[in-house]
Amino acid sequence: MIDQFLSYLRFERNRSMLTVKRYEQSLRDFEDYFRAQDETLDWASVDADVIRGWMEHFMEKGNIASTVNTGLSALRSFYRFALSRQLVDSDPAHNITGPKKRKPLPQFLKESEVDRLLDEQEWGDTYNEVRARTIIILLYETGIRRAELTGLDDDDIDFAARQLKVTGKRNKQRIIPFGEELADALHHFIEVRDSQVERQDGAALLLTRRGRRMTGNQVYQEVKKQLTRVSTLKKRSPHVLRHTFATALLNHDAGLESVRQLLGHESLETTEIYTHTTFEQLRRVYKEAHPRG
Questions:
Q1: Average per-residue pLDDT in the chain?
Q2: What is the pLDDT of residue 290?
Q3: Hey, which residues are catalytic here?
Q4: Among 7, 271, 255, 233, CA closest to 108
Q5: Is residue 233 classed exposed, middle or buried when 0-12, 13-18 and 19+ CB atoms within 10 A define those classes?
Q6: DSSP string of 62-115, one letter each residue
Q7: What is the pTM of this model?
Q8: pLDDT score of 266
């Protein structure tokens, strides 16, 4: 049956040799598995429980979800073919759901790295240096996205109430409070900007030396440059500072719903990934500190 299916893939469906070999490997592995479980089993008598057991066996051997799903895809295709050729009476793989791919945990800076960057690094008084430090503080203290940052205008800052009006995805606006450090940094930045840059672009907060609104790519390159000074993370983007903002709040007892609103997430489920991040931190602390950890 396997050979018939592979010929079908190769000559009728015109699948690549790589795909055919990958499917063959999955089917041979599954056949070895079910025959080891019960030598009376064959392709026609296998049921859904046997397939689920094979998937669990696959996962226990250390295979990732995408590998298991590739194997399941091969089984689905095989049984559809076998059913259409009346080689089997039923399709046991039809209603089986594969394992969900595990989302990578957000990368974030340690608090000590943020302190080193903002408090211990040397920052000059040129416009570019003042702007760079302001960008870092803005992203870290508010958790806003890169596009939200470049979209900020001077009028979006309410210094009296210490609030920032942010326009997020689908033009939804939210208000984010900020502290004294960011207020001081913004006051200083605007003073330096207005004395050194001739504005060419409306009311934008962040301007290039030529007076134009900064682009997302320019912000990305600036943040990457600054984070490289204190971090060895592979990813050193503005989004890392957004992750750092959320993780810092949760590590200091902020409620998940409050963090969701500050980040502008539609769903609490999106925000919950940061609880996994903080749990991983606790796990590492436990293993490092507990004598029997």
A1: 89
A2: 45
A3: 145, 169, 239, 242, 265, 274
A4: 233
A5: middle
A6: T--HHHHHHHHHHHHHHHHHHHHTTSSS--TTTTPPPPPPPPPPPP---HHHHH
A7: 0.62
A8: 81
